Amino acid sequence: RESLYAECRAKPARTRDGFSVRVDVNSGDKESIETFNADECDGVGLFRTEFLYMGQKDYPSEEFQFEVYRGMAEKAGGKELIIRTLDIGGDKQLDYMDLPKESNPFLGFRAIRICLSRPELFQTQLRAILRAGVYGNVKIMFPMIVNLEELLQAKSQLEAAKRELDGRQIAYRRDIPVGIMVETPAAVLLSDILAKHVSFFSIGSNDLIQYTTATDRMNEKVQYLYDSCNLSVLRSIRMVCRNAHANGVQVGICGETASEPRLIPLWCALGVDELSVAPPLVGRTKYIVGQVSKKEMEERTEKLLASGSIPEAKQELSGILGELG
Ligand code: PEP
Ligand code: MG
């Protein structure tokens, strides 16, 4: 098996009936940057930037961030590099930021909420990303969006960052593609509207499962409910895919479920354009994609999502994976 997977790693993944799925990697710490090899994936589908803020005594400067993003963009060559703006808060805290203690941090002051309320912090990062855009196929992604207003505010901040760079006469990528993480039920239900304002969606299933099933992703006691096969989650993902494609928007998945073997046939059926996975799982993910017939899976997927029973859905999904070989 391992050698079959290794063979698939460097080749484009296509279903048996010819539909392409890009398989990217998730990255976002020193080690994953050092070991990143663009020849063994289709790009970076999620570049988490929290690590730049975490191992520090103070906020990272524009130059420091720019060097890291540029290095990664150059390593990626022409392949896509989706840089996610700061997603701090929730489970990730920073001493120097002086954030309030909260009783429900995952429902609190985190991610885009912090960035929109601290324009200097946000602008510094946006300028660094814009500048790195000159050195590769860089895209920018906003996390934790729950309404259109947040997205529009974030985009207007991006325009302000461009004006600042214009003023300083520093080179940057003017037409940088903008996308959002779809990781809240709010974003799922608004995906038809949000799609009109972005060039891609990336489904953050780690948080989407948490928020859809009202199950803290860190709480051991309720992990039995934190289930990627909860049909509410799968139906949400179907809705996002439909709304994305109806608007010509690309859709990816960058949570852990992107590489869950029994769900990969489903992702193919739903027309997911890109899966972003842990680097060691690229080969296996591409291999499974190559075994699937999208057309055959479409009908089975509709039946499965109508069944309402999680155990039945899991049994059916395992059966399908078994048939693929
Ligand atoms: C997610 O929520 O699925 C995701 C990829 O982001 P993170 O795990 O960093 O919250
Ligand atoms: Mg998330």
TrEMBL record:
Name of this chain's protein: Phosphoenolpyruvate-protein phosphotransferase
Entry EC number(s): 2.7.3.9
Cofactor field: Mg(2+)
Recorded GO CC terms: cytoplasm
Intracellular or extracellular location(s): Cytoplasm
Any GO BP annotation: phosphoenolpyruvate-dependent sugar phosphotransferase system
Residues involved in phosphoenolpyruvate binding: R48, R84, N206, D207, R217
Chain's gene name: ptsI_6
Residues that bind Mg(2+): E183, D207
Domain PEP-utilising enzyme C-terminal: 6-292
Role noted for this protein: General (non sugar-specific) component of the phosphoenolpyruvate-dependent sugar phosphotransferase system (sugar PTS). This major carbohydrate active-transport system catalyzes the phosphorylation of incoming sugar substrates concomitantly with their translocation across the cell membrane. Enzyme I transfers the phosphoryl group from phosphoenolpyruvate (PEP) to the phosphoryl carrier protein (HPr).
Active-site residues, Swiss-Prot/TrEMBL: C254
Organism the protein comes from: Caproicibacter fermentans
Protein keywords: Cytoplasm, Kinase, Magnesium, Metal-binding, Phosphotransferase system, Pyruvate, Sugar transport, Transferase, Transport
Top-level lineage group: Bacteria
GO molecular function: kinase activity; metal ion binding; phosphoenolpyruvate-protein phosphotransferase activity
Family indicated by similarity: Belongs to the PEP-utilizing enzyme family.
Signal peptide, first to last residue: none
Catalytic activity: L-histidyl-[protein] + phosphoenolpyruvate = N(pros)-phospho-L-histidyl-[protein] + pyruvate
